[in-house]
Amino acid sequence: MQEHSTTDEQWMLRALVVGAFGPESDANPRVGCVLVDPDGALVAEGWHQGAGTPHAEAAALAAAGERAKGCTAYVTLEPCNHTGRTEPCSHALAAAGVSRVVYAVSDPNASAAGGAAWLAERGVATEGGLLEAEATALNRSWLHRIRTGRPWVTWKLAATLDGRSAAADGTSQWITGPESRQDVHEQRARCGAIIVGTGTALTDDPRLTARRADGTLHDHQPLRVIMGLRDLAPDARVFDDSAQTVHLRTRQPREVVAYLAEREIHHVWLEGGPTVAAAFMADGLVDEIVAYIAPVLLGRGRQSVSDLGITTIADALRLEPTDTRIIGHDIRITTILEESR
Q1: How many CB atoms lie under 10 A from the CB of residue 316?
Q2: Which residues are catalytic?
């Protein structure tokens, strides 16, 4: 494995910070690039600001101008080697006279990969794998879509301590507190799509938007997806002009995720009820669960997920906790499924 200096790590950490400035919900990956001169001084940095804007390397090179010559470029993702809206980043780096490229993650996209090899063939020193785990986390859902062909699916559930998502009379607003509900809005704003079934849409008449604490809409709104065969009222709130909405007349989760993958959506927020959640679980399409557990007991009422076909404790789904925190009076537990690790 390639060994890197502490200085290399410091600059790649900066590239990761810069890359995180990019929009998480965009169809393209978040990428940061830092240019450092032979004396170890920062020359310029750039990040990808979303589809249709310059890539991180192009942004950094534009800021550096002629000062890019002889620099080392620290990039969180292997420079692309294909022509899209702009020339390949590998070509731009070579043309600018960059002498060394250090990148974190190899590009798994077959149409864009190969930039490192192209640069090496032209005498530019290239080194990969620096802070690969951290850079992978930065683009977890995008990398997942490229590698698997489907979006990363996060199932959000809100439940009482005894696992109920609604009372015996069907009421469910509100199990969790206002702090948890606001946290959900922040999570929605980071995703490309939000899914509910027709049952939830008919019962709750949700807007399915991402709103700030003051009630205003976030700049990014996820695509609102309703799945199911039943008709919705034309004046349902989910059809307002706050965000785009599609009604997919299917009960098959695989058809829904295939449609979203075609739209290059890489992170899906699943808020469907227990039946929709169980269908996604049964098809192996849930990668992560974000559970908001309220200190509330109901005793009776709707379970947070329908029958999963598990009849013995030996077959229970064991999840890997990745984060636990108190939000208001509730507990938010984030877990991933073993096959998604």
Answers
A1: 9
A2: 57
